[in-house]
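Appendix B. Extra example for self-study. Work through it before the problem class; the solution is given directly after the inputs so you can check yourself.
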Amino acid sequence: MPAKVKNMLSGIVAKMAMRRQVNQLPGETSISDSINILIKYKINGLLVIDDGGKPVGVLSKTDIMGAYYAGLPIDLPLADIMSQPPLYCYPETFLEEALETMRDKAVYRLYVVDPQYQTVVGALAYPDIVGLLYRYCRDCEYSHHQQRNHRIKETMERIQVKAIMARGVKSVQVEDSLSQVMEQLSMYRFGAILVQGKDEAPVGVISKTDLVLAYKHGMDPGAPAAAIMSSPVQCCGGGELLEDAIRRMIFSDIHRLFVHGESSDSFVGVFSLSDAARSRSGSCHACISSRIRMDA
Amino acid sequence: MKITAKDIMSTQFHTLTSHMGVHQAVKLFKQASRAEGRKVFGMMVIDDSGGLAGILSMYDILLFMRPKHIHIWGMIDDIDIVGLVEQASEKTKSVLVGDIMTPDVITVTPDTHKLMILDIMIKKHVRRLPVVDNGKIQGIVYISDLFYDVLDRFMD
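Solution. Structure tokens for the complete assembly:
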């Protein structure tokens, strides 16, 4: 195991964080029908299988956005646009190792395969890892949700959003076309981008989900950003505790918060569930000891 | 004796269109329940030419509303449920019936035998089957229609 420093995820394996419900579709399913599954189950990707039920690829919202950008008909079979091959790990793979694979291969999920029967038994994505992390953090006696141990809590150093967030915010203008928005998203490999109105004031956000829905609704990619952006912008302060920001994201099904600086009218960074998973920590450094107690 | 789908299907049914917003569909569920005098749990969705595009059930809508990480809420007791439901409802505003309906629907023809329908309902876990003839919707068989037809001998 490559972990040099002990952290909250040390020793935790994939099966503890994975989601056991794996959404899979045959390759001949249309892009249009596959969007219904992605939207309904609030997932960013699904497994594509062949006639024999064997996994052959992965279809993500990024692939669908690419099809929209390229002007492909929405009734094409998803086998035409899926990414290959699916990437795997085992139920006993350490999360540390899984995270490393996800980072190296620049993917957002791994499928978990039973080593004996070679069948897919789960899916492991960043939000699932964060969910597990939050559970530990929440139950920790040093958590600021717990009422005991006041004195320890006050002296303990806590991690704030600004330490973990990705610095700098890219944005598009309300009148920019959806095609331009898609170009920006794929250039920077973002899941969402800020939309600015006049005077550079942020007025909304466009995510890949919004674009997938625009494709589904038959919207012209030349339409302006304003037509599909969601507002208001979900945001938090840089000084907010990591634990609180994570809590908001996992309870409200949002993937990222825009972080404002000292003056509250401009954004200085973005904090996403992927950042949270990579940070491998809750709000303080007491995690390891609390986890050992919970596992015992 | 009632033998095939056309004998037991309901011909009084309400439909949705795929371009309709989900919030409007919710209203129509209520209206249809009142008009048909039964609880309507699912409705057929028609396309622009009047053909069957899919089915939207309460289950589809609830699935969409369900927070994704609800499994980690078990031990958490200080959640603002009202706020969360409001947030989830807000999200349905940009979503249309066509986005979350089940598009790939099993159908039967007016001449499908009722025991075949029984078999399909059990194997596929569905409670309603649209009856389609040459692309035209003729009716819908509900599991209750089938239930009372097959078991009416126990009714007296």
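Self-check: Helices of chain B lie at 5-8, 22-36, 58-65, 81-91, 97-100, 114-124, 143-150. If your reasoning did not lead you there, revisit section 3.
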